[in-house]
Design goal:
This protein has 421 residues and is an alpha+beta fold. The chain has 2 domains: 4-195 and 405-410, 2-Layer Sandwich (Ribosomal Protein S5, domain 2); 203-396, Alpha-Beta Plaits, CATH 3.30.70. The protein has 10 helices and 19 strands. It has helices spanning 79-91, 130-145, 154-160, 218-228, 231-252, 256-275, 286-302, 324-337, 355-359, 365-369, and strands at 10-17, 19-23, 28-30, 35-36, 40-44, 51-59, 66-69, 72-74, 95-97, 102-104, 113-120, 174-177, 190-194, 203-209, 308-310, 317-321, 350-352, 390-396, 403-404. Helix 1 packs parallel to helix 2 and helix 2 crosses helix 3. The protein is globular, with a radius of gyration of 22 Å. Bound molecules: ligand DP6. Ligand DP6 binds at residues 21, 24-26, 34, 40, 129, 131, 163-165, 218-219, 312-313. Ligand DP6 binds next to helix 4.
């Protein structure tokens, strides 16, 4: 580990997206390796709106591995972090910087320690899949720093051991996690079905729903489902394999009707499995159920799907429209039924891509008040406008996979002190 002094600090910074599953992963066959009982498919979300940024630093002067998440130090002792670190160290390559006199051989990586700082560009408390972006970024940035040579999706197999859904965040666009059948998990990897330019028209609106209740984590929820639900077996063996093929075809052909039908059905079945779990798990709340009813009514009124909805292990809705024109109608409906709580500023209520807001003709809070009930609304629609049930909306789209950020000012760790800036 030659170096002119032992003071050098080597760093890498990367950004990784989060993803939303349209065919859900729910249930493991191996808890330690995180091997699923079915394939899943997701859409990667635009990292400009929902992503994690991570800086990893290594130096002979660091005494132990340390990590800071959103500015707060967290323990790295958890099995999931340790499994990822072990896999990465096993695959690390040599590193050489002649100018700075730094030479790191493969074996040196086992002796060196890391400082890792990560932050999410969206509130962690929002209940959006922060672990997917977080672990994808953790693995991707360390792999770059350690010169890990990626072979056939093996980085995704490492991220998978941090959090199952994280493996899908290593690619942009549309991604399938194939469950694999090897005991080692080597074939349980993510593959890109199509990149983010394939179906550019899709618009995604996330409704961050207010909730007071502390949710069951995905990890323990799916363990309880595997232990007690009989529906989950039928889902994994019969329903999902068929849906995966249909979903791949819908994505290939940009067939929104099939895409929407499959996405909604799969979300509903995942939540049915949660209800079939003993004791039952309720991830959706009244607001989530109202969103489903309103979207279903709109789709039925138009006689062809206008919008797809999907819900993960929480009450937030992810709504997908086929293009800007329909997304505009969607946002108008959402703002009609879910106006902001008093004293909420519009800029804090509709986040992300502002063009849909402009196209919907919403310039101010009074334009929300002036919205008319949609044609499919029931007579009592105005009475159903309850402010404050949604905390905010994020307008986004499908996006690209992880990238290295080379700019010095993007680093979250100081190259002088080795500590968070
Ligand atoms: C409902 O990936 O968070 O979001 O593997 O235990 O970390 P662990 O679980 P996690 O589960 C995600 C479940 C889901 C569906 C999905 O993303 O496919």
């Amino acid at each position: 580990m030659a170096g002119e002094s032992e003071k050098w600090i080597l760093m890498a910074t990367a950004r990784a997206p989060t993803n939303i599953a349209v065919i859900k992963y729910w249930g493991k066959r191996d808890e330690n390796l995180i091997l699923p009982i079915n394939d899943s498919i997701s859409v990667t979300l635009d990292p400009d709106h929902l992503s994690a940024t991570t800086t990893v630093a290594v130096s002979p002067s660091f005494e132990k591995d340390r990590m800071w998440l959103n500015g707060k130090e967290i323990p790295l002792s958890g099995g999931r972090y340790q499994n990822c670190l072990r896999e990465l160290r096993n695959r690390a390559g040599d590193f050489m910087d002649e100018r700075r006199g730094i030479r790191i051989n493969q074996e040196d990586w086992n002796k060196l320690h890391f400082h890792i700082a990560s932050y999410n560009n969206f509130p962690t408390a929002a209940g959006l899949a922060s672990s997917a972006a977080g672990f994808a970024c953790f693995v991707f940035s360390l792999a770059k720093l350690m010169n890990v040579k990626e072979e056939l999706g093996q980085l995704s197999a490492i991220a998978r051991q941090g959090s199952g859904s994280a493996c899908r965040s290593l690619y942009g666009g549309f991604v399938k996690w194939t469950m694999g059948d090897a005991m080692s998990g080597s074939d349980s990897i993510a593959v890109q079905l199509a990149n983010e330019t394939h179906w550019k028209d899709l618009v995604i609106i996330v409704a961050v729903v207010s909730s007071r209740q502390k949710e069951t984590s995905s990890t323990s929820g799916m363990r309880e489902s595997v232990e007690s639900s009989s529906l989950i077996q039928h889902r994994a063996k019969v329903v999902v394999p068929r849906r995966i093929l249909q979903m791949e075809e819908a994505i290939r052909n940009r067939d929104f009707s099939s895409f929407a039908r499959l996405t909604c059905a799969d979300s509903n079945q995942f939540h049915a499995v949660c209800l079939d779990t003993s004791p039952p798990i309720f991830y959706m709340n009244d607001t989530s159920h109202r969103i489903i009813s309103l979207m279903e009514r709109w789709n039925r009124h138009e006689k062809t799907p206008q919008v797809a909805y999907t819900f993960d292990a929480g009450p937030n809705a992810v709504l997908i429209a086929p293009n800007h024109e329909v997304a505009t109608l969607l946002l108008q409906r959402l703002l009609f039924y879910f106006p902001p709580a008093p004293n909420t500023e519009l800029k804090n209520y509709v986040l992300g891509d502002q063009t849909i807001l402009q196209e919907a003709g919403i310039q101010s809070l009074s334009s929300i008040e002036a919205l008319k009930p949609p044609p499919e609304a029931k007579d009592n629609a105005p009475a159903q406008r309850v402010a404050g049930d949604v905390n905010y909306f994020i307008c986004t789209r499908s996006g690209k996979g992880p990238v290295v950020l080379v700019e010095e000012d993007k680093a979250l760790i100081s190259s002088q002190t080795g500590l968070p800036k």
